[in-house]
């Protein structure tokens, strides 16, 4: 392991710790940006959130646009693995990067989980505790496990 790789991992751990346990509600977005994630203006990320993207060394697969509100304890999972790995090798061998995009003006409720390869479009609302496995259309309200459409934003 190279010294640069080690420094990046240490920096990432420090940034993630400061982002997950913020001093104020606005400092969380600041620290996630310092980790390298793309986070738009006027975005609020609640405490205890986790942006999981390959140990924070690859951060280009999670994009959060402007005026987004993310409640506490939300998990954005930007990586996965091949299901064949476990069956064939008994362990995870390959990591598969997926993209998560949260568009302008969306709300993500507390405790929600957003899985890889999902786009939450403009003005959409994700209910608390939802598990989002598919794209959420603009101005749609989704909730449940897995998340399903329950209404439209008026």
UniProtKB/TrEMBL annotation:
Q: Which residues cross the membrane?
A: none
Q: Which is a Pfam family this sequence falls into? A: Hexapep
Q: Which domain of life is it from?
A: Archaea
Q: Which Gene3D superfamilies match?
A: Hexapeptide repeat proteins (2.160.10.10)
SUPFAM superfamilies the UniProt entry points to: Trimeric LpxA-like enzymes
- Annotated CDD domains: LbH_MAT_like
Name-wise, this protein is: Acyltransferase
| The organism of origin for this protein | Methanosarcina mazei
Q: Lineage of this protein's species?
A: Archaea, Methanobacteriati, Methanobacteriota, Stenosarchaea group, Methanomicrobia
